Amino acid sequence: MSISTRARATPTLGRRARATRTNALRDTGVTRDGLRAAEKQRVVVDVDGVGKVLLQEFANDVYAVSNKCPHLGLSLQGKTPLLSATVSDGAIACPAHGSAFDLKTGEARGEWCPKLPALPVVGKKYCGEPTAIASYAVSVDESGAIKIDA
Ligand code: FES
After folding, report:
1. Which residues are within 8 A (CB) of 121 and not within 5 positions of it... i.e. 6 or more apart?
2. Considering only CA atoms, which residue is closest to atom 3 of ligand 1?
């Protein structure tokens, strides 16, 4: 899994300087047993300083990716069953237009926006360029607590 680093602007004496946030292990408040028991073996948590992170168990491993699809910013796992991503072959697909992302790396996989209908007048899709989602290294301690490196 890749480790995401983000830069943020920090005001300094009237100028703006860029500072890189240091990654740290952040507790998700979810245990391995809790994730296994969850519907679709999936939980979305709001991690301090990171935002909504989707935890997914797949093939006996735990993955963590951003819950926000980079296409239109919709949730991969929303609050209703209609907005619920599908997982297949190590990738998670957005419920809106079907763009899929590798659970390990966050990279876009396959056709971008395959479910987006073509515009009748123009006859083509407007869906932008394939874009990765943030993915986070996961560790599970001896008590089963899931932490992400973010
Ligand atoms: S919002 Fe996710 S593919 Fe369009």
Report:
1. none
2. 97
Bridge partner residues of 86 (DSSP): 93
Q: What is the pLDDT of residues 6-62, one digit of tens each?
A: 333 333 333 344 445 578 999 999 999 999 999 999 999 999 989 999 999 999 999
Distance 140 CA to ligand 1 centre (A): 30
Supply 76's token pair.
């991969």
Q: What is the CATH number of domain 2-149?
A: 2.102.10.10
Q: Which of 124, 74, 123 is nearest to 96 (CA)?
A: 74
- Going from the Cα of 64 to the center of ligand 1, the distance in angstroms, rounded, reads 18
Model-wide pTM > 0.85:
no
- How many A from CA of 100 to the centre of ligand 1? 9
Ligand 1 pocket at CB < 6 A: 69, 71-72, 74, 94, 96-97, 99, 113
Strand partners of residue 50 = none
- Using the atom order of ligand 1, give the atom closest to the CA of residue 73: 1
Scanning the structure block, which residue is given the tokens 């990716």?
Answer: 65
The b/e string for 30-55 (b: 16+ C-beta within 10 A; e otherwise) is: bbbeebeeeeeebbbbebeebeebbb
